[in-house]
Amino acid sequence: MKGLLVKDMDYANEILGGSERAVARLMSWLEDEDERAYSVMEALYPHTGKAFILGITGSPGAGKSTLTDKLARQIRKQGHSVGIIAVDPSSPFTGGALLGDRVRMCELTMDPEIYIRSMATRGFLGGMAKATADVVRALDAFGKDVIIIETVGVGQDEVDIIGIADTTCLVLVPGLGDVIQSMKAGVMEIADIFAINKSDRPGADQLSAEVSNRIEQDARIKPSDWTPSIVRTVAVDDVGVDDLWKAIENHRDFLKSSGRFIEKRRERTRKETLRMIHGEIFRIVREQLQTTGELDDLVEDILERKRDPYSVMRDVVNSWIALPPICQKEAS
Amino acid sequence: MKGLLVKDMDYANEILGGSERAVARLMSWLEDEDERAYSVMEALYPHTGKAFILGITGSPGAGKSTLTDKLARQIRKQGHSVGIIAVDPSSPFTGGALLGDRVRMCELTMDPEIYIRSMATRGFLGGMAKATADVVRALDAFGKDVIIIETVGVGQDEVDIIGIADTTCLVLVPGLGDVIQSMKAGVMEIADIFAINKSDRPGADQLSAEVSNRIEQDARIKPSDWTPSIVRTVAVDDVGVDDLWKAIENHRDFLKSSGRFIEKRRERTRKETLRMIHGEIFRIVREQLQTTGELDDLVEDILERKRDPYSVMRDVVNSWIALPPICQKEAS
C-alpha cells in the first residue's frame, strides 16, 4: 500500500464516501483490466473484508434472478445494504438469458441501498473469476453489507466464481431432467443450501426427497459438520424467501462459530492470489512476445515444423524466468 | 527437437508404429501434466499437422454423442481413421451426462480404426484447453485422419477447446427454449455448420428458419466468405448424417481453397504457444511459492490486511520475470 499517489487515495476516499459514480467507473476499469484500477484497489483494500458474500447458482431457467431479486428485498427489510453481481457466462447457450432477466430487476435499483452490477464474461484464462473477485472487493469497500454473486453454475469459470462466496445456494427446479446427473457430478460439495424453486410445480416432493437422500448418502461417505439445508421457494410469489434467508443466516452463523469462515477465506485468498499472479504473468508474457514480434517468428517455425512448441516453451521460459536469488543479485 | 533421449525417440516410434498402449499412456501423462509427456511430444511433433480436426458442440441433451457416434461410422465408410475426444466439462449440471453417453459408444471401440478418449475437465485456469490440444496432437501423430472434439459449449474453457478445431459444428434441437438466446449471444462466430438434430420433432422447421434468418442478418452486418450451412439430422436413426459429413467436407475444402485453413492454424498455434509458455511460467512460480511456504505467509499478511493482493502480485511477478534483454545479458 506504500507509495500510493494522492490521486489514488482521493479516488478511494470518494468511493469510501459513497460515490456511486466513482465505484461504477472503478468496476468498469476492473472489468477491462485497466491498469488504473489496481492502485485504487490497493488504497481500498484495508477497508474490505466486512461484507458477507452469498453465491446463487443453478441451471438456466431455475429462476435465479427472481430469487435474487426477492432475497435482496428480504435482506433490505433486515436493514442491510445489498450489492448484486450478476455474472453472464460466455456461453452462447445461456449468455443472453441472464441479461434478459436483469431487466426485471430494474425496479430494485430504485432503492439506493441496492447496487446491481451485470458482468459479461470476457478475457481469457480465469479472467472472469479474477474480475469478479475484484468487483466484490470494490462493493465491499463501498460499504455493501451483503454481496450476492449470481451465476449459472456451468464451466470452470463459474465454479471458480462461486468459490468466492462464503455461502453458496444452489437453485433447483422440479422437472429438470439433469438433477440426478448434477447430484452425481459433485454439486454437493459446492452447495451449502438447496433452494427448490418453483416448488408449486409437480415433482417438488420427489426432487426434495432425492436431494435429502443424496445429502444423507454424502454424509455417510464424507462426514461434515454442516448438513446442507433444503428450502422450498416460489420466488415469483415471494413464497419461502424469508425461510431461505433464515437458512442462509444459519449457515453464516455456523461458519463463524465453527471457524470455517476464516478457513474458507484463507483458502479463497490463496486461490485469488495465485490467480492474480497467473493473470499478471500472462499479461506480461503476451505483451512482451507480441510487441517484439518474437511470437510471430516462433509461430511460423512451429507451423513449418522447423521447431516444436514444447522446446520453444522451454527455451522462452528459461530465458525469462529468473529464479529470484540469481536474478535479483544480477540486477543489483 | 535436439537433445532428445533415445528412450523418448523409442517411445515416440512405438506410437508412430501404432501402439495403442503407448499412446494411451502418453495421453494420461498429458492429462496429468506429467513432465515425461513433453519430451515424447517433442519427438512426435514433426509427425503432426496431418489430421483434420472437427469440433462438435451444443447444449446438454442436443444429442452430440449419438451424432458423433454416427459421424464416426460415416467417416470410416470413407476409409478414414477416426479419433474422438469427448471433453466432459467440470459443470455439476452436465458433467455426468457425457460420461453416461460414452457408454453407448463402446460398440464403436470394436473398430480398431476408431479411438475414443474421454477427458474430464481438470487443472487450473485453461489447463483443459492445453491438455486437449496436446491430446489432439498425440492422436494426430498416432495417425488418425479425422479427430473429433466433442464438448458442451459452455464456459470459457469449452470455447477455448472448440477453438482448436478446423471446422465447428453446432448441434441444436427443436424445442430448446434458449435457441434465440444462443443466437443473440454470438454463437454464430463459432459455428461453421449447424446440425438441427432430432429434426423429426415439432419445431424443426421453425428452428431451421430462425437459424437461416440469423445467418442472413449476420452476413449483412459482418460479410464473410463462408455462409454456414444448415443440415437436419435424426442421429438415433442415422438420418442426415451423410449430408452432415458432406457439409463438413465442403467447409474443409473451402478452408483449404480460400487459405483460411492455414490462417486458422496460425492463429491457433499463436494461442497455444502463448498458453503453453504462460502455463509453464505459472507452474514454476506456483511450485516455488508453495514449497518455500512463501505463499502461506503472503496469504496471512493479506488476510490481516497488512498487505494487499495487488502489490503482492506486482512484487512476486517482478521478482520472477526478468525481461530478456536485461536478464540474458546479466546471466552470460
Report on this structure:
The structure is a homodimer of 332-residue chains. The first copy, chain A, has 332 residues and is of the alpha/beta class. Chain A has three domains: 1-47; 49-258, 3-Layer(aba) Sandwich (Rossmann fold), CATH 3.40.50; 268-331, no CATH class. Helix content of chain A is 55%, strand content 13%. Chain A is built from 14 helices and seven strands. In chain A, strands 3-2-4-1-5-6-7 form a seven-stranded parallel beta sheet, with helices on both faces. Chain A starts with 5 loop residues before the first helix and ends with a helix. Residues 90-101 and 324-332 of chain A have low confidence and may be disordered. Chains A and B meet through helix 3, helix 5, helix 7, helix 8 and helix 11 of A and helix 3, helix 5, helix 7, helix 8 and helix 11 of B.
Describe the SSE topology.
2 copies of one chain form a homodimer.
Chain A: H1 6-16, H2 20-31, H3 36-44, E1 52-58, H4 64-77, E2 82-88, H5 95-104, E3 114-120, H6 127-141, E4 146-152, H7 155-162, E5 167-172, H8 179-184, E6 193-196, H9 204-221, E7 229-232, H10 241-258, H11 260-291, H12 294-303, H13 309-320, H14 324-331
Parallel strand pairs in A: 1-4, 1-5, 2-3, 2-4, 5-6, 6-7
What labels describe this entry?
332 residues, globular, alpha/beta, homodimer
Short description:
The structure is a homodimer of 332-residue chains. With 332 residues, chain A is an alpha/beta fold.
Oligomeric status of the shown chains?
homodimer
Would you tell me which CATH topology of the largest domain in chain A applies?
Answer: Rossmann fold
Shape assignment of chain A: globular
Q: Which sheet architecture does the biggest sheet of chain A show?
A: 7 strands, parallel
Number of helices of chain A: 14
CATH architecture grouping of the largest domain in chain A: 3-Layer(aba) Sandwich
